[in-house]
Amino acid sequence: MRKPPVAPLATFVIFGALGDLTRRLLAPALVNLVRDGLLTKGTKILGVAHTEGDDNSLRDVLGEYIDDKSDWPNMSANVHYRRGDFTQAETFAALAKELTGNVVFYLATSPGFFGQIVDHLGDAGLLDEKGGFRRVVIEKPFGTDLESARALNRQILARASEEQIYRIDHFLGKETVQNILVTRFGNALMDAVWNRRYIDYVEITAAEVVTVGTRGAFYDGTGALRDMVPNHLFQLLSLVCMEPPVSLSADAIRTEKAKVIAAVPPIPPEDAVRGRYAKGKIGKAKVPDYTAEPDVNPKGRTETYVALKVAVETWRWSGVPFYLRTGKAMSARDTEIVIHFRDAPLSLFPDAEGGKLPPNTLILQIQPNEGMTLDIAAKAPGPIVAPVPVSLDFLYASHFDIGHRTGYETLLYDVLIGDQTLFQRADQIEGGWAAVQPLLDAWGKKGKPEPYKAGSDGPEAAAALLERDGRAWHPIQ
Ligand code: BG6
Known about the structure:
Blueprint lengths: L10 E5 L4 H16 L8 E6 L5 H9 L8 H5 L2 E5 L5 H10 L4 E5 L6 H10 L10 E5 L7 H12 L7 E3 L7 H11 L2 H6 L5 E9 L8 H4 L3 H19 L8 H13 L9 E7 L1 E3 L2 E3 L17 E6 L11 E6 L6 E8 L19 E7 L3 E9 L7 E9 H4 L9 H9 L8 H20 L4 E4 L6 H8 L10
Parallel strand pairs: 1-2, 1-4, 2-3, 4-5, 5-6, 7-12, 8-17
Antiparallel strand pairs: 7-13, 8-11, 9-10, 11-12, 13-14, 14-15, 15-16
Helix pairs in contact: 6-14, 10-11, 10-14, 11-14
The structure holds 6-O-phosphono-beta-D-glucopyranose.
C-alpha cells in the first residue's frame, strides 16, 4: 500500500487543553500518529487553559486515556502547558513571543470563545504566515442558527483566509464515512444505478443509546436538531448525493458537497418530528425521563430525537425523499444509510409465498459493525422457482484492522498536511443552517416534543412520517 508522507514539523496549540475532547480524543490520536510514523519527531503540543498547572500536570492529564503507552514518553517530552485566559490579549502576546514556524491553533473550547480567540490571534500577529503555516481548527457547534453561523464566519474570515480555517465535523474522520466516496466513485456498478431512476428513497439514521448523561448544561440549550442534523447528518447526505468531483482536490469535493446542501429547500415543520425520551429501560439500565436529568430545565422544549423528510432538488435526485433521523436513549447504537432501490420493472418471480419480491436495498453501516450489505433475490433450491431475499455482506473488520482509532487521526494529519477535504467550508455550514432554520424558528416558539420511551425506536409520529408515504423505517439494530 502507498505510504502517506510524514507530516511537516509543527506545534499544536490547544486552547482548552484540559477538557474532555483533548484528553479522550486529541492526545490519543496524536500518539497513534506517532506510532504510525506520520508525525515528525519534535512535533509539539502546547496546551493552554485557565486552570493553574504546569507541563507535568498536563502530561498526567493527557496520559490518562492513552491505552498503549509505548510511544507516549516520546510525545510527552514535547507537551507543555501555558496558563492563560482566552479573553485577554496578554495570553496571546506571550504566545507570539515563543511561537515560531508552523502552528496549528486548535479551538477545543466552549463555542462562546471561538470568535474572540481568532480575533486575539489576529491582533497578536499569530495568523501571519510569513514564517510557516498558521491554521485554525474549530470544533462544533459552529453557530446555533443561520444568523449566528454567518456572523461567526464573518468574524473569523476577517482575520484568516478560508484556506487557514479547518471546521471539524468528526463524522468525516470515520473510515466508513470516507468510504462512501470510494463506494460511489470507485465502482462503476454503483454509478450506473445511483440516481432517481433506480433509487426510490434513502434513509439516514444516527441512533444512539447514550442519554444526555452529564452534558445537560450544553445539550439542553442545543437539542438533537442543532447537535446532529445541519452538521453530521447533512455531511452524510451530501456524500450520498454529490456529483462526481472533477478531481480529488479539497475544493473540487467541497464544491460538489456544498451544491447538495444548497439544493435542500428549507424544511417545513410538517415534514419534521421532534421527540424526547421518557422514563424507560435500555438493556437492564433504568433511564429517567429527560426532564429529570441533571442540568435540564424540566419545563423546557428541548428535543432528544428528530426525524425529517428532506428533498434534494437536483437533476439527479428530484422526487427522491431522504428520511433522516437521530436520537438519544434509543434501542441500539446504529448509524447507517439505507438506499432503497425501485421495484424490478416486471414482477416475473413471485416469492416463496406467492407475493412480490422486496426491492433491493444497500445498507452502508457506518457504526458499529462497519460494513456494507446488499440485499438481493436468489433462487432457493428446489423444483419451483421461488426466490428469497439474501444478503451480500462486507464487514470492514474482516478485511482491515480498524481498532484503536479515535477517528481524529486522519483529521489531525490532514490539518498538518494542509488537506481541507474533510473539513467544512463556510458555505456548507451556512447551507445546513438555512435548511433547518424554519424548524428552529417554529420549535423555539411553541409546542413540545413527543415523548418516546427510553430504549425504543423513537416517537410514533416518526413512523407516521414514512407511513403517510407508504414506506417504513429500516429497523434499528
Ligand atoms: C457529537 C454530539 O457531535 O456527536 C453528541 O455532540 C453525539 O451528542 C456524538 O453523541 C455522536 O458521535 P459518534 O461518533 O459517537 O457517533
